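WARN retry 2 of 3 for item q-0093 after timeout on previous attempt; input resubmitted unchanged.
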Amino acid sequence: METENKMPFALTVAGFDGSGGAGILADIKAFDSFGVYGQAVCTANTIQNESDFIAPGFLPWISILAQLNALYRKRSFDFVKIGLIPSAEILKNVVLYIREYSPNAFIIWDPIISATAGYKFFTPQDMDSFIPWLNQINLITPNQKEFTYLGLGLAASRNEVKIGSDFAVLLKGGHQKGDFSTDTLWYEDQQIKFSSKRLSGKGKHGTGCTLSAAILANLALGYSLVESCQIAKNYMDLFLRGGEGLLGRV
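OK item q-0093 returned
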């Protein structure tokens, strides 16, 4: 295993989206935009384009594990993002694997719980079993629907977890109404807001993937979590203004 890297590395554990708008392709592009070398473990060979989700194509844990083993033979990753994942059980397996081989890694989980076509990737019952492992993740980046569906607020009200203390949460505001899109970060018992003027027209495919990947890239470059969230927010403004149709580009 290499003990020293000349360039920053980041790992994404997520699905493959052939349109390039989301998943590991979007993550790698975001990493590269900031000069971070991205490597990837594929959790699902999805069948989709930027507007239609046809099938998830989930891979079994044995295949995900084999990919992790191959990459970890070369290096230990200090910055890891988890995206589309088949189940809470496999999410736990991935997190515990990372913690075993990279104990101090910064782990971001961008929870993807459904597709526009109606597929559901998690159930609240799944998350009940994962709650004890949540504090193994450093940052979770849900939108309001994902936050509610996963029961994060309920778990906090039951004192099962302490949001902002056990782990940080960036609650995305892209689906809110109003002239501004405001993301709220709960971190170290603080509440920090990041706002940008809402752009008119349709959103872009894969914004959640790109945002979380941009945050991770800047953490890999040595910025603090608050700085990384702000830089990523500015980056997303450029992303939403660029590209074509539902495909964003910086």
